[in-house]
Amino acid sequence: MDRKDFLKKGLLGTGMFVASASLGNTMKNEIDEIEPLEPIGYNHLPNTDSKIKDNSVLHKADSRGKADHGWLVSNHTFSFANYHNPERMHFGVLRVLNDDKVEAGRGFGTHPHDNMEIISIPLEGDLEHKDSMGNSAIIRSGDIQVMSAGTGIMHSEFNKNNDSLVKFLQIWVYPNKRNVTPRYDQITLDKTKSQNRFQQILSPNADDEGVWIHQDAWFHLGNFENNIETRYQIKKKGNGVYVFILKGSAEIEGQKLEERDGFGVWDISGLNIKSTSENTEILLMEVPMTM
């Protein structure tokens, strides 16, 4: 396949397209890497490189794949682009969890996706978004952005600022409906609702709190003081939960977790969670383990 045909296919959800460009110059992109992945099947269980029990898997922060492009530093929990680990392809329908830092004035040039639910969670700085649906927006810490790529979209993402980093999580979830009409949404959270409890930020239902996607998935964020105990109840039988520690530390079902550790659990009805340091921030991603 030549480059032109490859760009037409655009990886469209099962791989990566990284284009580096300066602000205001999205038409002249330098392609840093194009590395497709084979389409991923919907296995019931994750592979076993970090399995610690019959129903859980641990991914320590320093075990993630790392890509350093100068303008972009990205840590990949699951296989992505040049980081290909057959033991870390996905957790149920959770396909991508990238922890990205983008240099001032740089970003991802215009690139395509299809048939993927794409969620961005800004952690620091200002991320500018433009897409082929006519949306132009800036998302910041406290915002949640979602795109249903559906039949196909083009979009770009840039660090809006010329003097500071932007940090954000890029998350991809396989949809339960293919070839839907593409859509975009973003909201600003009321952070008081996540103090010492979990705040719902995403669900399958447009009328629920947070954004929604085409999948039976629920995401929650919580910010906890030290030694706060809580329990998360599974929303749909058969779903698993992937926990990502943004800051601080916690003990979940007896497993000790530190900053940027990931912990996936399945075949459960709920999770017992205890923060073990001040200002512990936790992202819970409940997702189907099968399609």
Automatic annotation (TrEMBL):
What is the annotated signal peptide range for this record?
none
Q: Where is the Quercetin 2,3-dioxygenase C-terminal cupin domain?
A: 201-287
- Its transmembrane ranges are none
Q: What CDD domains is this protein classified in?
A: cupin_Yhhw_N
* Alphabetical list of InterPro entries matching this protein: Pirin (IPR012093), Pirin_N_dom (IPR003829), Quercetinase_C (IPR041602), RmlC-like_jellyroll (IPR014710), RmlC_Cupin_sf (IPR011051)
A Pfam family hit:
Pirin
Ranges of residues in domain Pirin N-terminal = 63-173
Top-level taxon in the UniProt lineage = Bacteria
> Into which family does the record put it?
Belongs to the pirin family.
Under what name is this protein listed? Pirin N-terminal domain-containing protein
Q: Which organism is it from?
A: Chryseobacterium oranimense
The opening ranks of the lineage are: Bacteria, Pseudomonadati, Bacteroidota, Flavobacteriia, Flavobacteriales
